[in-house]
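User: Structure please.
Assistant: Input sequence and predicted structure:
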Amino acid sequence: MKKIISISASLFAGLLLFAAWPVSPLTILIFFGFTPLLFISDGLQKKASFFWHTFLTMLIWNASTTWWIWNSTDIGSIAAIIANSLLMCLPWWGFFAVKKRSGNLVGYIALISFWMLFEYIHLNWQLSWPWLSLGNVFAAHPQWIQWYEFTGVSGGTLWILLSNVLVYEIIQSIRLKHLLSKILIKLSFLLLIPLLFSFFNLFYYIQHTSKSAAKHNVVIVQPNIDPFQKFDARNISKQIAILINLSEKQIDSSTRLVIWPETALSAVEWQPNVRYNNFYQPVFDFVNRHPEISLISGIETLKSYSSSDATATSSKREDGTYVDAFNAAILIKSNQTLQFYNKSKLVPGVESLPTFLKFMGPVFEKFGGSSGGYGRSTTSSVFHSDNNPYFAAPIICYESIYGEYVSSYVAKGANILTILTNDGWWGNTPGHRQHLQYARLRAIENRRWVARSANTGISAVIDEKGNILETKGWNQATSFKYPIPTSEVLTFYTRYGDWLYKSISFLALLMIGWNIFLVLKQKQLF
């Protein structure tokens, strides 16, 4: 019976986490979604048993929340979900070990610091997949998290972990008939202070920011082109005609920026030769007809190197040269030099293969991934052209879920965030809706407006407070314009990035080191 109860608790925790995640309206469940695991940790003695109970929870959460990646890579999605679930167990396994050795209080500190260390590593290593970073869960409720301009997503993660610990302690106190007053006061402050601060911050921001209307507008195009056909050379001319026609419908004398989605220009070309590609001549004619506008578009390009300057991602050709393929962005303006940015944050297994998994290249390629991978930029860059008020961050698809990386564009002068994406690979699933919601977090963190061009949807305009002001629905070929203001404000988060993750990760490393010392001392190695 005890085993059935603990397995049921694991299942229940996974379902709570799934039910809390965007785009569900039950976000509040996140404040106690982990409490069943805390219950299990009190009833088990063996680390291995607790690990597998935790794995069941994480597997249910991952599979039910990100199942849609199956639509772009079937076998690869299974591997990714299992791997991510296993990785999520490590902080909990560490918590369990510390708790058994040092008691509840130290164990809870370990859980919070270990989980935040895990999230920080998962943002920055070669198998990065921060889709389920806990602080992302509030993306659909920007009014709750206006303080993300100070902490970013890590503040939300800390809030959730602390809340789960205190909720569990209240439950235990009720069960054991302990005095609740002190814990209830702490919980009330924990839950209410971030909300009160958020509403105050929102009110202050509304009262002390300029209400003047934008002088210029941005045209956002959503061509709704089948992602599985867009790279067929027979379709490229037709696709470009659709993009130009949708743009022409919206451009007026105030338009200064036109945005096309990821890989909208799909005729693979060497970067120095893009201007001379026959498929792209209508694009340059279009820009020349509207000399006041700048066009930002996704594009597939190539670049060659000699053996002396070859990159780690480039592949050697038979003639001895090296070549990189890029999922890139381009800025085109009449009579001005082309500007390129090559996507830096690549999707693991699909667009890049970690160095330590290179030997598995043929396996990844067979199941829809990449054996060689795309080339990449080593840093963010900002697009700007003469006589244009918009300094644009060319954020390509997956990059928009990286808070600190997006902030690096703003630190370099971007006064608008432009997201170019193609979520059509996932079909009409929660994936593209979650991706849209995450863009609201970037707006709040940096107090920048977001212009989002998505191939099949959902394209949108998001203001600096995270409010979605206009969208175009899924599976529509459409375009729209919006007067978007610019801002020069640099938030605390823009300046200092993931400082909270780094601080608590340092604490986690100290705890890990101390516990290793205790284990070695116990074994009389010290």
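Residues 359-371 have pLDDT under 50 and may be disordered.
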